[in-house]
Write a structure and sequence with these properties.
By secondary structure, this protein is mainly β. It has no helices and 8 strands. A hairpin with a 2-residue loop joins β3 and β4. It is globular. The two termini are about 25 Å apart.
Length: about 90
């Protein structure tokens, strides 16, 4: 299992939509990169760059991330993204 350090969060991106709201099936080239992800693991927070960081997100949350943030990682055949908590824009409720 990947265990993030400090203010990092491990995310698994949700699948891109296969159809539009009106039912049109999209080809793989026209699917937009998803920005919603599931939180897989959360670091412990702590002092980062001289400031205390408290972790707000938790495992299982669905979140919206900054489109071009994070580091892509392949682990045990699965694709993950590791981001700083500050790169998470919102929690989906």
């Amino acid at each position: 299992m990947l265990k993030p350090l400090m203010d990092r969060v491990v995310l698994k991106m949700c699948e891109a939509e296969e159809t539009t709201a009106s039912g049109i099936i999209l080809s793989s080239g026209s699917k937009e990169k998803p920005q919603i992800a599931e939180v897989i693991a959360v670091g412990e927070g702590g002092i980062v760059d001289g400031k205390e960081v408290k972790m707000i997100v938790k495992k299982g949350d669905r979140v919206v991330t900054n489109k071009y943030s994070g580091t892509e990682v392949k682990y045990e055949g699965e694709d993950y993204i590791i981001v700083k908590q500050s790169d998470i824009l919102a929690v989906v409720e």
